[in-house]
């Protein structure tokens, strides 16, 4: 499992908890090479981890880091 997903799972109360809230099987989280773009906003809402940190290739650098 990639580090950012591990961190998100910790904040959500575990892998099973995160998967349950996302409506997916927990084993799917282990297959991600990066967070799917369609899951980013949900994970941000659930965990508080910024979309910019989850997928900087899609959302760019965080506004405070861009300066």
TrEMBL record:
Which Pfam family, just one, is annotated for this protein? YdaS_toxin
Under SUPFAM superfamilies, the record lists: lambda repressor-like DNA-binding domains
Gene3D superfamilies xrefs: lambda repressor-like DNA-binding domains
Q: Which GO terms fall under molecular function for this chain's record? A: DNA binding
Recorded protein name is CI repressor
């Amino acid at each position: 499992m990639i580090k950012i997903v591990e961190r998100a799972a910790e904040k959500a109360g575990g892998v099973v908890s995160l998967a349950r809230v996302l409506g997916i099987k927990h084993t799917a989280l282990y297959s991600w090479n990066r967070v799917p773009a369609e899951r980013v906003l949900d994970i941000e809402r659930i965990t508080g981890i910024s979309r910019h940190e989850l997928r900087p290739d899609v959302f760019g650098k965080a506004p405070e880091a861009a300066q």
